[in-house]
Automatic annotation (TrEMBL), chain A:
Localization: Mitochondrion inner membrane
Name of the protein in question: Mitochondrial import inner membrane translocase subunit
Free-text note regarding domains: The twin CX3C motif contains 4 conserved Cys residues that form 2 disulfide bonds in the mitochondrial intermembrane space.
Record organism: Salix purpurea
InterPro entries found in the cross-reference section: Tim10-like, Tim10-like_dom_sf
GO biological process, one term: protein transport
Keywords: Chaperone, Disulfide bond, Membrane, Mitochondrion, Mitochondrion inner membrane, Protein transport, Translocation, Transport
Membrane topology field: Peripheral membrane protein
UniProtKB/TrEMBL annotation, chain B:
BP GO annotations: protein insertion into mitochondrial inner membrane; protein transport
Topology in the lipid bilayer: Peripheral membrane protein
Top-level taxonomy: Eukaryota, Viridiplantae, Streptophyta, Embryophyta, Tracheophyta
Function: Mitochondrial intermembrane chaperone that participates in the import and insertion of some multi-pass transmembrane proteins into the mitochondrial inner membrane. Also required for the transfer of beta-barrel precursors from the TOM complex to the sorting and assembly machinery (SAM complex) of the outer membrane. Acts as a chaperone-like protein that protects the hydrophobic precursors from aggregation and guide them through the mitochondrial intermembrane space.
Organism: Salix viminalis
Protein name: Mitochondrial import inner membrane translocase subunit
Amino acid sequence: MDPSALNSPELERFLSEEKERAMVNEMVAKLTSACWDKCITSAPGSKLSSSESSCLSNCAHRYMDMSLIIMKRFQSMN
Amino acid sequence: MQTVRDKCFAKCITKPGSSLSGSESSCISRCVERYIEATGIISRALFNAPR
């Protein structure tokens, strides 16, 4: 392989996109795990109930609200 | 993978017997399906719903 290809802008862009994708996937996996524990309390049925689905969706939204609050709090420290 | 396994083990294998019972295996397959469904809901909530 041509060594100059290793610092091409395309490769750099590809890598940063992949990193971002990996971060997003990790975030979704973590949140699914946390919200599953909060929202799915009974034995799994043949479909998620509407209260379970809305709980999951609320859970993700509240997590984002919370992240924002925490971020703001830390930004105001200096 | 690891997570789904742990979640569904906790939900479906509450009292391990000498082999997997039919109801345990069907619980596991339902559980995995529901976990995938839940993952979809979470990612949709994160990326395209406004509120």
